[in-house]
């Protein structure tokens, strides 16, 4: 239990009974602020204004019962304790079954502080258990280790007689027989002298006022196989003599063996995860926008150059600042676009101006209003991979250019020479021989045109000579002649960017239109290339048969890769029977 004052909301029509309850709480040392209400309307109002830590309610009230008040809580978790006079056993059982925390008879009102302390301790333990569960899930993907329920034992210590009273659950936790319910106090039967010495020291610190409560975990070497059992003991001095001498203390016992085991597993899993993240340059995170919580792994901290904390309330602002300004609009469009999953690449800028390229993927959970509830994802630093891919791609491009040159300068020239030789041949003056010669010359001319077309397509010579605007216009003319569909286009782009970007845009458009010609069965095709202040955007749309975009064909992979190598963003959407849209965003001046 924490040392701050408790907010106690009392639902009681008898003012004297309410004052008696408060007297016992004050006598037990439970500092509190309180409000007393006597009807359901005021109870509901004060519940959300006062924000109580504990609710105490009489069973019978003028306009309701305690159960009516309890129902108002709904999913709110607050200890709800009924303090009443004559309530039949049946009603008391009914109340407890409905979820009421506990029942205290007004004839035994002195039990109220202990009941409150026990309820608050149980809430604290539950929060700790949930925290461990959450940590385990974060440390290892889909790791499901659920902690069992927490059955508290209760103890009451009389310092004057040095005797301690245990309830049945406490005896079970400590491994004591039922006849030992009242024992000489031996510091919770610690199973070795070192543990007893520690428990004695911590208890004395609490008695001397150095700590607000007594709160310790200790180990019981109880089993024959040597396995350990861990117990959490909590308590507080609830009565002192006028001179401050401790007279009585009460508290709880809890078997926390499973929690300790899970903590050890958590440490091991965390170590495994951290090693894996370090090797793969991966980090994980969870963002809870409504509570402004951003939880991240050490790998995430390493990638973003952050302090290695697990939870940070201001990290989202730092995270936003790191995102490259040209990638922010696209990232926002993806994250806030009502999608349940995303998988994108984007850049971040480190404080030293270093640019890193990340792959960022995750699951987005929305509430019933469509607002983001949480985002759980991973980031991977692919800067080095991108450089390797770019080197490979450039090498492939150089090889393609070399082959194109060889075809043009070698095979092409040989065909030209062959055509010239055939043209200069003297053939007999008969119609058949002349026709044969003309057919051969025509075939050679066609072959030569095809060789030149292949050579031109394999290299960037057209781009180098005429620029992207003219090359894209030429592509539009080509597909108009090759496809059985209507083509519309809008091409409005500057000429102040490099050949790599021009080549990527052209090749993606070429791949997309080739696929339309081969597979789409479209009636209409639209090609659009336009620039903004920060981006150049390519969009190719058709109204053809569409397809399942989950099929990661080579053509799609090539378009994605070409876009990524220019630090761009690729998106494809298609519905069977309704057509396909391919869109690439390329940052300018990067």
UniProtKB/TrEMBL annotation:
The keyword Kinase applies. Residues 7-121 form the Response regulatory domain. Keywords: Kinase, Phosphoprotein, Transferase, Two-component regulatory system. Residues 214-268, 342-394 form the PAC domain. Coiled coil: none annotated. SMART domains: PAC, REC. Signal peptide: none annotated. The modification 4-aspartylphosphate is found at residue 58. NCBIfam families: sensory_box. This is PAS domain-containing protein. It comes from Reichenbachiella ulvae.
